[in-house]
Write a structure and sequence with these properties.
- This protein is mostly helical.
- About 60% of the residues lie in helices and about 0% in strands.
- It is built from 5 helices and 2 strands; from the N terminus they run H-E-E-H-H-H-H.
- A two-stranded antiparallel ribbon has the order 1-2.
- Helix 3 packs antiparallel against helix 4 and helix 4 packs antiparallel against helix 5.
- The longest helix is centred in the N-terminal third of the chain and has 55 residues.
Length: about 240
């Protein structure tokens, strides 16, 4: 009995081995037959992926050889019209053909508000005279009583005087709000030389400026009324 069982198991294993042997022989040529086709498909997929990557990659990220600087065409030939003030970008001011022109700089430096050598009250008087003299004209010619003879000049000059008082009040309010404290640190030049502070940029100086503006504005309005009564060709 043991010999028969051993022979039976051996015969069964040989039969199973013979049955599986032709299938393996048949499957190997099929695998060899499909292998080139699979490799070709993989190559095509890799080429498609590389084409998509190259198309989606922007030109700005392309590699540039070291030591090579890219500049726009005619960059050196184009003149820079707008530049930072004194070449310092941290100042927060730009130099333009208008602000840096000598004629504009001289005009702005001669305005009463920027003449640091003049007392604040005298600056206010000069500015008030100009504004008071010019404000009377629109009220006289465009006011509601412009067609009433003899009353247009009086009412127009009174309206201009009222506007001057309103402006003087606004100047006082601004001075009280802007100059509440004295700056602890002064200004210096790049060489270390201290710069004298403008007396107008203080609460006391601004109060003198507002008082001078009030006096000058009312005087300008009064002078405009006198001219309307004296000039022979006014009417």
């Amino acid at each position: 009995w043991p010999v028969r069982s051993f022979a039976l198991s051996l015969s069964l294993s040989l039969v199973s081995l013979l049955e599986s042997f032709p299938t393996t022989l048949k499957s190997k040529p099929a695998l060899k037959h499909h292998q080139p086709k699979m490799m070709m498909l993989q190559k095509n997929a890799a080429l498609q992926k590389s084409a998509v990557r190259s198309a989606s990659k922007p030109a700005a990220f392309s590699r540039v050889p070291r030591g090579l600087t890219i500049r726009a065409a005619n960059e050196d030939k184009r003149a820079q019209v707008i530049q930072p003030l004194n070449g310092d970008p941290f100042v927060g001011m730009l130099e333009t053909p208008v602000t840096s022109a000598p004629i504009v700089a001289n005009y702005l430096s001669n305005l009463p508000a920027y003449r640091t050598g003049v007392a604040p009250n005298l600056r206010g008087v000069e500015i008030g005279l100009a504004h008071g003299f010019l404000l009377a004209g629109p009220f006289i010619k465009l006011g509601p009583l412009r067609n009433v003879p003899g009353a247009a000049e009086v009412v127009g000059c009174m309206s201009a005087a009222g506007l001057v008082l309103i402006l003087a009040l606004c100047l006082s309010l601004y001075g009280n709000a802007a100059f509440q404290s004295t700056p602890s640190m002064g200004k210096k030049t790049l060489s270390g030389r201290p710069l004298a502070q403008d007396p107008l940029m203080s609460s006391e100086g601004w109060a003198k400026f507002a008082g001078g503006f009030t006096v000058g504005g009312l005087s300008g309005v009064a002078w405009a009324y006198v001219l309307t009564q004296v000039l022979p060709y006014y009417s």
